[in-house]
Amino acid sequence: MQYSISKPNKVLEGKVVLPSSKSISNRVQIINALSYSFESIKNLSDCDDSKVMQKILLSNTNTFDVGHAGTSMRFLTAYLSKIVGEWTLAGSDRMKERPIGVLVDALNSLGAQISYLEKEGYPPLKIFGSNITGKEVELKGDTSSQYISALLLIAPTLESGLRIKLKGDIVSRSYIEMTLNIMEEFGVKSEFKGQEIYVAKQSYNCIPYTVEGDWSGASYWWSFMALAAEGKLYLDGLRRRSFQGDSGLVPVFEKLGVKTQFSKRGMFIEKKESDCKKLVFDFLQMPDLAQTFAVCSCLKGIPFHFKGLETLKIKETDRIYALITELGKLGYVLHEPAEGELAWDGERKEEDEKIVIETYHDHRMAMAFAPVAMLRDDVSIDDPEVVKKSYPNFWEQMQELGFTIKE
């Protein structure tokens, strides 16, 4: 399936009720399961990733398939390693290409019993859940923050607690801090000093919890606004003081021509003039927004040089390759100056005759390229339903704001 999208009226006005945070939803679900809590989780994300997590945690079988849900694969690997039983954890063909050896090695060093059913270092996994007694593990700081968060979520339930020593630069520190902040809301104390995180053995409190809106999903509306002729949108559901690292997008989009004004339940975003000549930014703490800013910057004709993208090649797809390839179809010549970097110096080439943006089973590719519709109506998005992974009603909300979407 393909969607051809356009916006006859280039003014963008209205209200958007944002989806709840997938990242927070999945962390809270694991915490609830570890605390055997029957308290409700309000505003739980209805995206595919969170539904998969919920289904597995409520299942009475011992064989699970997470599909494309990377967060679920990582968090459940750690969770099941300490739940007594024999478990099989599998996923999609793409999931079989996403490495998990760093997490498995860490868990096994702590006393877990996890083995590979196919390729060494990759899902599917065979997990023999048992009591984990180890108390210290060492990881590279530039590894996926989801590995670290997976370990932290089970840390207070381990016999001796857990100390994690991180070597080198710490990538996506904001996601680690978000995990620790959420754990603290459930009564678990921790110490994060320098390169070490320590969580003593303790119990999670059973509390009702309301999940806030998703800043990652919200980022696409800033991109739409940056490309609109004029407009003002109200985004409902975001906290000004958020645990989500992606909330750092506000000052960056200010440079690209979007003014943000906070209110009690959300915020207004409004088009303004931009005099940005080049966008230079380190996405170390919010790598999931690199696609949003790369597409938006190109469409606005603003050269850029992004750093801190080391983890983008092990996401739902190799996002560096995907951005270079798909923006190339639109005539933008991007390059990779060094590992973990992406740049566009303004170079253009001839566009493809027919432009169909491939999504590579990556929800963020679909949504990052959707704002192309603010400028042109000859671009189609392939496999648009992939947005269900994190933002199920994304296309419907676009239509409510005056976009035309045709299959």
From TrEMBL:
Can you state which reaction this protein catalyses?
3-phosphoshikimate + phosphoenolpyruvate = 5-O-(1-carboxyvinyl)-3-phosphoshikimate + phosphate
Residues covered by the Enolpyruvate transferase domain: 62-398
| InterPro entries the UniProt entry points to | Enolpyruvate_Tfrase_dom, Enolpyruvate_Tfrase_sf, EPSP_synthase, EPSP_synthase_CS, RNA3'P_cycl/enolpyr_Trfase_a/b
Is the keyword Isomerase in the record? no
What class does this enzyme belong to in the EC scheme? transferase
- Presence of keyword Transmembrane: no
Protein's pathway: Metabolic intermediate biosynthesis; chorismate biosynthesis; chorismate from D-erythrose 4-phosphate and phosphoenolpyruvate: step 6/7
TM helices/strands, residue ranges: none
Task: Please list the coiled coil stretches.
Answer: none
Q: How does it assemble?
A: Monomer.
Q: What does this protein do?
A: Catalyzes the transfer of the enolpyruvyl moiety of phosphoenolpyruvate (PEP) to the 5-hydroxyl of shikimate-3-phosphate (S3P) to produce enolpyruvyl shikimate-3-phosphate and inorganic phosphate.
Q: What is this protein called?
A: 3-phosphoshikimate 1-carboxyvinyltransferase
Give the species this sequence originates from: Marinifilum caeruleilacunae
- Taxonomic lineage from the root: Bacteria, Pseudomonadati, Bacteroidota, Bacteroidia, Marinilabiliales
In the UniProt record, the gene name given for this protein reads aroA
